[in-house]
Amino acid sequence: MRYNKKQISKALAMAQRAPKGEERPAAMVAGVLNRFMDCSEIDGVGGEEHETMRSAIFATMGDAYRHEGNAELAAKWYR
Fold it and tell me: What are phi and psi of 19, to 5 degrees?
């Protein structure tokens, strides 16, 4: 799938705020980021920046599970 940098950045910002205000943030974060999980192309971004943005998606999911106290699932997302 192809998305643009602005779409992903906006979704990441929204998802990264979730752990501070949600009791179970992983479900909310997944709802926001799910459509970007299979992102293969980002308009206007290439190389290292592309990989950094994709990594941020998975790290945000890991952070949400860590916040819930689920270290096992957090570790899987961080990998």
Answer: -60, -25
